[in-house]
Design brief:
mainly beta; 1 helix
Length: 200
């Protein structure tokens, strides 16, 4: 192998290592403790994670909404399961704050809330009660979806909060990234408040 080929291989290997280190880890679970800037969380599978929370990290709290609060033009993200007939049935619906429009990617993709679940980040065209029950019709660049929203599906948004909510037993959702040393850190945490959890 030539010297140039060796250098190219080394560069590609380094790039792959950086890309791997940057891959986010979505964590859902309950707070065990917050000690300084280190948040310990017990995930749904029982595994514990230690997550660095920088001083400038954003903390938001879940706030319950109703189906009547969903309006045309809202930017939403329903997590859904696919029914045997192919219809999408919401497991939960998040109404994004206006500040996240253009920040959260739009589109329809697989999700990890439960096996086989999907996520549709899109704009609401209509929200109404139809023949199949409550439904929202969504539009995003390159596509559209209809999502049926059962009565028991939680609907929520998030509002600004602070670290005082990160107490033992609180439920959090965050997307953490490994740093160059492998330690996880996050810049945004959604946390439960008054019994309302960030259900996505």
């Amino acid at each position: 192998m030539s010297g140039a080929s060796i250098l190219m291989l080394a560069a590609l290997t380094a790039f792959a290592g950086i890309a791997s280190a940057q891959s986010p880890v979505r964590i859902r679970g309950t707070v065990v403790s917050l000690e300084g800037n280190v948040l310990t969380v017990k995930a749904r599978d029982g595994k514990e994670f230690k997550i660095g929370v920088p001083a400038n990290a954003s903390v938001v709290a879940a706030k319950a909404l109703t189906f009547a609060d969903i309006k045309p033009g809202d930017f939403v993200g329903p997590a859904s399961r696919v029914r045997p007939d192919g219809a999408l049935e919401a497991i939960s619906v998040q109404v994004f704050p206006a500040a996240l429009r253009g920040v959260v990617p739009e589109g329809h993709t697989s999700w990890d809330l439960e096996p086989g679940s999907v996520m549709t980040n899109a704009n609401v065209a209509t929200a109404m009660t139809g023949a199949s029950g409550r439904e929202i019709n969504l539009e995003y660049p390159g596509g559209s979806k209809k999502v049926i929203v059962p009565e028991n599906a939680p609907i929520f948004t998030t509002v600004p909060a602070d670290r005082s909510l990160l107490v033992p037993g609180a439920y959090i959702v965050t997307s953490a990234r490994p740093g160059v040393d492998g330690a996880l850190f996050t810049q945004r945490i959604a946390v439960s408040k008054d019994g309302v959890i960030p259900a996505n």
